[in-house]
Design brief:
It is a single chain. By secondary structure, the chain is mainly α. The chain has a domain of about 180 residues: MetI-like (MetI-like fold, Orthogonal Bundle), CATH 1.10.3720.10. The chain has eleven helices and no strands. Helix 3 runs parallel beside helix 6, helix 3 runs antiparallel to helix 8 and helix 3 crosses helix 10. The model has no long low-confidence stretch (mean pLDDT about 85).
Length: about 270
């Protein structure tokens, strides 16, 4: 084999690995920049995204910009409530779609994808029209944001839990019932623990989508200001570095949750 052929073969064998590494680098570069800027002292320059000098002040005083604390708290409250309701309703809907046969089941599966496929501006304006026609036009605020977030998070929960349910081995449930377990015992001791990782993944995805949403929230928020809306408003004057602190903190919390779950899963696997 010639040297050129050996090089081509080596590249072909490692091409997927290289592309994967490039995608990861492309994905994590913005996160690295946000983390770096959370330690930036921007008081010496008008160029907010030029690193001037290292400082802990942004982390020691994360709520210094007026209104940011209230916007973060509001976003977290809405995200928690929307995630809880969307996860419960979405899990029940996923079980119904996977485990039961009924008229309109195929149509329901198609309709579920519509909120995911529709542009956010279309869904946001449609929800606004719904609220206005229902008499909520003058009462836009916390609850209209909450309803809107549940609406678009629901589809993601159903799809995620459905994928987990579809991959379950039915023989495990049948074996439990062959060992004289009741339907209730089989569900709580076999089915639910197996589906739980999918439910947790759906909840984490819903929380991220809700906390991060801007377009739908902006159309249905009234006088309320969530964190993404605060960032958008602050960008007109200059984004404070504390915004990067919140972004970095949310990223670290998400990574911590994933790592704790993974370590717990591996420990259970070793123990078994």
């Amino acid at each position: 084999m010639t040297r050129a052929a050996a090089i081509r073969r080596w590249i072909g064998e490692h091409l997927v690995l290289f592309l994967g590494i490039l995608v990861l680098i492309y994905t994590f570069v913005p996160i690295v920049v946000v983390t770096l800027m959370s330690f930036n002292d921007s008081s010496r320059s008008r160029n907010l995204y030029k690193f001037q000098s290292f400082t802990w002040d942004n982390w020691l005083h994360p709520w210094e910009p007026n209104g940011m604390k209230e916007s973060v708290v509001l976003s977290i409250q809405i995200a928690f409530l929307a995630t809880a309701l969307a996860t419960i309703l979405g899990t029940l809907a996923a079980f119904a779609l996977v485990r039961h046969r009924f008229k309109g089941r195929s149509a329901a599966n198609v309709i579920i994808f519509l909120p995911m496929a529709s542009p956010e501006i279309v869904m946001g304006s449609s929800l606004l029209a719904l609220f206005v026609s229902s008499g909520f036009g003058g009462q836009l605020g916390f609850w209209t944001i909450f309803i809107a977030h549940v609406m678009f998070c629901l589809s993601f929960v159903i799809v995620t839990v459905k994928a987990r349910l579809s991959g379950l081995d039915d023989n495990l449930e049948q074996a439990a019932m062959d060992l004289y377990a009741t339907e209730s015992q089989t569900f709580w001791r076999v089915t639910f623990p197996l589906v739980l990782p999918g439910i947790i993944a759906a909840a984490l995805l819903s929380f991220s989508l809700s906390f991060d949403d801007f377009i739908i929230t902006n159309l249905n928020s009234g006088q309320e200001v969530t964190f993404p809306m605060f960032v958008w408003g602050a960008s007109q004057r200059g984004v404070p570095m504390q915004v990067n602190v919140i972004g970095t903190a949310m990223f670290l919390i998400a990574i911590s949750i994933v790592l704790v779950g993974e370590f717990g899963r591996r420990r259970q696997k070793v123990a078994a």
